[in-house]
Design goal:
There is one protein chain. α3 crosses α4. This protein has two domains: 173 residues, Quinone Oxidoreductase, Chain A, domain 1; 139 residues, NAD(P)-binding Rossmann-like Domain (Rossmann fold, 3-Layer(aba) Sandwich). The two termini are 14 Å apart. Strands 3, 5, 6, 7, 8, 15 and 16 form a seven-stranded mixed beta sheet that branches. A six-stranded parallel beta sheet has the order 11-10-9-12-13-14, with helices on both faces. The chain is of the alpha/beta class. Helix content is 28%, strand content 27%.
Amino acid sequence: MKAFILERYGKSNQIRVAAVARPTIKSDEVLVQVHAVGLNPIDTMIPKGTFKPILKFELPAIMGSDLAGTVVEVGGKVTRFKPGDAVYASVFDTGSGALAEYVAVPESAAAHKPKILDFVQAASIPMVGLTSWQAFQDHGSAIKRGQKVFIPAGSGGIGTFAIQLAKYFGATVATTTSSQNIALVKQLGADEVIDYKTQAFENLLRDYDFVLGTVRGDGIEKALQILKPNGQVVSLVGPPDAAFARNRGMNFLMKWVFGLISSKIIRLAKKRNIQYAFMFVHPDGQQLSKIAKLIDDGHIKPVIDKVFSFDQTPEALTYLEAGRAKGKVVIRLL
């Protein structure tokens, strides 16, 4: 079968198409014929070695995390799926990659595809959906109705989903975007929209309960200024902290390194009685099932910027890395 693989880390695009063996599934896996793959910013960062100290990646490796497709084979211990089922999943950090014609997916990572979505739409959901769900529900105190949530970069892949999910949970949502995307984020439910090119959010927002850290640079430090005491920041962009290293089973040196690089932000957060956490998304089929129900019930809609063919995957990654996509970039195989 065809797949896009990473053979070595480097500054330039290291991904190439190759012929590889069709996966042999384990007893707790399903074999999925892939119809579409959703791309995420991390797919442009992994080839450069950015996550080499964190991810257990054995090269050469098939790239990609998010997929939607049809089950063609099930392992002996699988109970939730049968051949012919339409599914979607994230295989991030499982040892598998999504950019292939067939993928072995752990049963625990998969869910039935939302009924109202086609495969391209469904493939856009897993990582942004799981990231938003886990940030809002699994880290610290779950956000509650009436709380104020700040989600920067509202027109991006994470932002377009997270705004809708936060609104479903009953939060008041503020976001940043450029002037041409203001209508989009308001349509998704944003209550307060800040044009980041002309306005500084830290000067305009006050007494927020939760910040989802999605923008690199000094955005996390600035976000501390808008939070009320006992507020929380869940960062997707770092810095990683010692708690993250412990949860990943890393050695003492990595715990020390992550503790050191996160010491400033943690110190600043403690001064304001704010909780800081770095989050790494993990696959979860049960959560994807809950997300599928929200989608089928009309609470959340996918936002897709552009669809590329499988052979155009390198161009799609270049487009995504430019940082101008509104919503998700998806690869169509079938």
